[in-house]
Amino acid sequence: MKVLLLLGLVAVALADITRFEGEKVFRLKPVLDEHVTLIKELAKSIEVDFWSPESAELVSIDMDVDIRVPAMYLDMVFTFLQQNDMKIEVLIEDLQSAVDAQADNKPSPRAHSYTKYNNWDKVESWIASISSSNSDLISKQVIGNTYEGRPMTLLKLGRKSSSTKPAIFMDCGIHAREWISPAFCQWFVKEALSTYGRDAQMTSLLDEMDVFVLPVLNVDGYDYTHKSNRMWRKTRSRRSGSSCVGADPNRNFDAGWCTVGASNNPCSDIFCGYKIESEIEAKNVADFIRRNKSIIKAYLTVHSYSQLLLFPYAYTYELSATHSELLKVAEGASAALRSLYGTRYTSGPAAATIYPAAGGSDDWAHDLGVKYSYTFELRDTGRYGFLLPESQIKPTCEETMLAVKYIASYVQKNLY
Ligand SMILES: [Zn+2]
Question: Are residues 150 and 249 in the same domain?
Answer without folding.
Answer: yes
